[in-house]
Predict the structure of Gluconokinase.
Amino acid sequence: MSDRVVLGVDIGTTSTKVVAYDTEGEQLAHHSVGYPLDEPHPGWAEQDPLTIFDAVVECVRTVAGELPGPVAGLSFSTAMHSLIGLDAEGVPLTPSVTWADSRASAQAERLRAAPPGLALHRRTGTPVHPMAPLPKLVWFAEQEPMLFERVAHWVGIKDYVLLRLTDALVTDHSVASATGLMDIHHLVWDAQALGIAGIVEEQLPQLVATTTVLPGLTAEAAVATGLPADTPVVVGAGDGPLANLGLGAVRPGVVACSIGTSGAMRVAVERPAVDPLGGVFCYALTEDRWVVGGAINNGGIVLQWAGDALAPELGEDFEEELLALAERAPVGSGGLIMLPYLLSERAPHWSALPRGAYVGLTHGHRREHLIRAALEGVCQQLALVLASVRAAGNEVREIRASGGFARSPLWRQILADALGMPVRFPAGHEGSSFGAALLGMQALGLIPSIDVAADLVEIDETVTPDPAAAATYAALLPLFSELYDALVPTFASLRRLAPSLPPEPSPTPAPM
């Protein structure tokens, strides 16, 4: 029945996708619209907020038009950490500065090294890293002071879309918990963080729960989307926590692992917490459900690099042949370790400093060893994130995984072996958009609780670790971890020397 259908609106880094779901979890219609990620300077990653708003409107209008009747409401998911400066009339003065933007690296490193750095992380749930809005605000204050003074409101991309659709200037606790500006323990804007950023509370949207229902659309938005003006709009949450929900990983102890171009690992918890060393983030899903985990910059992008750099003759459809090459190398790649930090790294070290490295290279290693070591490096990095999740005091009983890598039996097996646990692969669902729809259904009273996700998501396959391979990776993991610390001085020297060296090769596009 169409009155039990919710549109999950997922505002992503490369596209917006809208999917219509009923309360049984069945996908009824979908549409997506892509848009570019602009990189006007090295390390910058921006988007046009007007283009993204237009994509949201087109997707909603298209999907709603394919349904036989009215919908129960809209519910939103968004890429986290974006930052847009608006004037007093709500007109953007800046592009949408995305999570992939690293212009604030110097500001983040300075804040992280200062005495309040770790305390800020533990109080706000957000690592002090250039991805986060807090260091970006410091960058704007220092590098664009005249523009900074003109900004009336600082918002994220979903906040901007909701403002245009409903005329409400709000942000949810999930998105706010990824800004570095909200106290996750009291659900208020953090006074010290705002002081560091050089802004006041009035410049930020009103904080609301992720299940907040806005009363409807403006007359202009109703015409543009083709929906009635009284269509309920559920504010929604960030795409990471909602991906857990979309995979059914909503109960304590169930970890969601995803490897797309980048990667992440998150476990649902009932109370906010960060580990003592600050290796994980803590973001809200609902008032009584949070996710603890870490994201990595380098997932499938590492396989893409290996194809370009090590097997260019394979052409565009290289993935299957590249994986076949990797399968010829033994577990552990003959003692070859790759630190896969091609696009710097996030969890668990949260530094923009590192670069990729091969260590242990000998005369006997061949192309297949280099390719396999790259895949193993990604999975070992996720194993470090899993260790940080455990260090934050979380039990890990089950791992569910999704993403483009899941098409590869080899990569599935390496992941299970590196994590040393069975990995379950759900069938079908679109992750964050399904999570947004489920959250909307709870907010609108169509389902009793988001816990139904655990029953709606069907497991397609479970991959168990090979004991011998798991033992090899367990023995290598301490070496993999130690290499980061050992190479930090080298990474720092390379950055210091960079201005005097010939230009680096053109960068691969930032992860999505």
About this structure: The chain is about 35% helix and 20% strand. Residues 508-512 have pLDDT under 50 and may be disordered. The longest helix spans residues 467-497. The domain at 249-428+466-496 is CATH 3.30.420.40 (Nucleotidyltransferase; domain 5).
